[in-house]
Design goal:
The protein is of the alpha+beta class and about 280 residues long.
């Protein structure tokens, strides 16, 4: 080939081109004792070549399985996996760990004790009737369909001393507001500093129910901060699972902002559930 034609040849096609940063290919050597030696190369942080030699021994482990399970392992794959070799593909299948179940030595005695305890409990509750504290129906209070909307009927039947209805003694029979009764403080005295922080905070606290178990406090804060300054967010979580119990409390700095958030967010969809938002009731 003339010299002018050799000069026009691309440098990438030159077989004698030697790249100092190129790494040799991986080498797998079969040893007489049944092991394999794998030699690999890599570059460290300083750009130097590092040679790694590993010796691997393959051990075949036999296990006894159900004949039907062994038969299914020989089935051919279908669909998008059709034509691929047998066995799970690590790129599409996650192989779980085999759990070995070992029952205790006295598991039969423990089972009899639990059955006897359950029978004793049934005997004790045989003549008793379950009554809901909210609607007085024959089911548990935790399963009452009105637990988020109605207070217990006992609370309605026996009002506390602080909620007594004052009637004008002059004979008109009209209702008198608490702050207008004799000896009562003015309407703004509690907010002026005489009331506790808890009393002031309850006036602008919303109770949010029907919350998804996957919800987080930052999610609720982000939703309610659109209506004003949020001072506190409390999301009740299960101690064991760490997931939401289904209700939360959101406190605002201003009651007007809390009222606006209550009006807008009540019935709002969050996740796959519909939120119910109302002003929190002060505990007795």
């Amino acid at each position: 080939m003339p010299a002018s034609q050799r000069a026009a040849v691309d440098w990438a096609e030159d077989e004698d081109f030697d790249d100092s940063s190129a790494l040799p290919p991986q080498q797998i050597i079969a040893n007489p004792d049944g092991t394999k030696t794998i030699i690999t190369y890599r570059l460290n942080d300083d750009g130097k070549k590092i040679k790694t030699t590993r010796k691997i021994k393959t051990t075949i482990v036999k296990e006894h399985v159900n004949p039907r399970v062994a038969e299914r392992r020989d089935w051919g794959k279908f669909g998008k996996e059709k034509g691929k070799p047998k066995g799970p593909d690590i790129s599409t299948t996650t192989i779980g760990e085999n759990m070995l179940f070992k029952p205790s030595m006295n598991w039969k005695a423990s089972q009899k004790e639990e059955a006897a305890q359950g029978q004793d409990l049934k005997t004790q509750l045989k003549d008793k009737k379950v009554t809901c504290r909210i609607c007085k129906a024959d089911h548990f209070t935790a399963r009452c369909p009105y637990k988020d909307t109605l207070p217990p009927m006992d609370d309605l039947a026996a009002p506390s001393a602080g909620n007594e209805v004052a009637v004008d003694t002059e004979g008109s029979g009209r209702y008198i507001a608490p702050h207008l009764r004799k000896g009562a403080a003015g309407a703004g005295d509690k907010l002026a500093g005489t009331g506790s922080y808890r009393e002031r905070d309850d006036l602008a606290t919303l109770r949010v129910t029907n919350v998804s178990e996957l919800a987080e406090e930052q999610d609720l804060r982000a939703m309610f901060e659109r209506f004003g300054r949020v001072t506190r967010v409390f999301l009740a979580k299960d101690r064991d699972t760490g997931r939401s119990k289904g209700f939360a409390f959101v406190s605002f700095a201003d009651r007007a902002e809390a009222a606006k958030a209550c009006e807008r967010m009540d019935g709002h969809g969050f996740g796959h559930l519909i939120l119910r938002v109302e002003f929190a009731k002060r505990g007795t």
